[in-house]
Design a protein that fits this description.
single chain; alpha/beta; Rossmann fold
Length: 197
């Protein structure tokens, strides 16, 4: 589906129809920006890899089997991505850089082990897989990575650990769809609060 929307709301969120379908549908939905479709059309370059953002939640990990199937059928590699953030309530983002190196190292060590374990599961099935550990805001870090691999296909769920109940897509997914310029496959997910967790 195209992410284009008419009217002022289109600048801030996905096109209303696309957003509603992607959020409420029970099957995966691929979104493509209209300018990308117009520029490349049916002659768009083949995908080079599949990018799967993971935040450590079971919901986010549910995207891995879909990515594995796509990668296997198209002969693509998979890149698992995790963004390390040190979140201090009520503290402006600019103060995050002041965290002691040892604290960053601990966070990155734990996250790196997580990605290594997830990658090993895929590698055991014969999938070509690598992983990347990023710092910063989740959406921006993912978008920056995707910009470095313009022919990649992003596969992600609508929500991660936040479990917020709302009509629009989870903020990270929505920002990646709107800003990356790459096709994104959005997988349906049940928020934790809706699942009674």
């Amino acid at each position: 589906m195209s992410t284009h929307a008419r009217g002022t709301l289109g600048r801030g969120i996905l096109g209303s129809v696309t957003d509603r379908v992607a959020h409420s549908n029970t099957v995966p939905v691929m979104t493509v920006r209209p300018e990308d479709a117009r520029e490349h059309g049916p002659e768009r370059e083949a995908f080079s890899s599949v990018v799967v953002p993971l935040d450590g939640s079971i919901l986010a990990e549910s995207a891995v089997p879909y990515a594995e199937e796509i990668a296997s059928k198209l002969g693509l590699s998979i890149t698992l991505v995790h963004v390390v953030r040190f979140v201090v309530p009520s503290v402006p983002t600019e103060f995050y850089d002041g965290i002691a190196d040892t604290e960053w190292e601990e966070l990155e060590k734990e996250a790196g082990q997580y990605l290594s374990d997830e990658s090993a599961k895929l590698a055991a099935k014969g999938v070509v897989v690598n992983w990347k550990l990023l710092r910063g805001g989740s959406a921006r870090a993912i978008v920056d990575l995707v910009h470095e691999t313009p022919n990649s296909l992003v596969v992600m769920t609508t929500r991660g650990i936040s479990g917020l109940t709302r009509w629009v897509l989870g903020s990270v997914t929505e920002k990646v769809v709107r800003s990356s310029g790459n096709p994104v496959i959005i997988l349906p997910g049940v928020a934790q609060d809706e699942a009674g967790e």
